[in-house]
Please model this.
Amino acid sequence: MKLKDHLQSLTTTHNTFEGKKSYEQVKLLLYRHWFILLEKVFAFIFLAILPLILYVFGGEYIARSELTSLFWFVIVLYYLLWWYGLFYAITMYLLDTWVVTDHRILDSEQHGFFSRIVSEVNLAKIQDISVRIRGPVSTFLNFGDISIQTAGTKERFTFKQVPDPRLIKDTIMAEHNAYLAAHKNGREVHEEL
Model:
């Protein structure tokens, strides 16, 4: 194995991904809005405090019933599952990504630790883009869903809970129009060279 292969992790950036073509430029790298992760973290903080509350209010009963060892065993199992759940939530947040380049859109959806679905569509196949913002929190923090109707095999791409969806929609439409102007009949001119 060459030294270059070992040092590749030092040369990759957020603008590099597997399968990126040499002439392709990343325009947007999107994750869900930060509030989605914060919401889950607060839920896990509440779940972390829950056994302590149970012990404060039921500690005397547990001690009198001689269930202390069983109680602590269950608590250790509970926190093990809690840690797994927190790690899972953070991992799913970080691995669900959407990439918009000047040639295509990539949708990478993580379904569990070992299952990922990656879909892509050429910018020429975009037919319609719609934005959906639901609820007062989404409106105030400016995040929502973007649905992209395509002519490809996957008829609809959905960017879920992304920040500033109107700006993202406008950016995708601008890239779509620029692509159509540069590539006659949707043909990739770079690969013909």
About this structure: Residues 38-91 form one domain. Residues 111 and 117 are 8 Å apart (CA to CA).
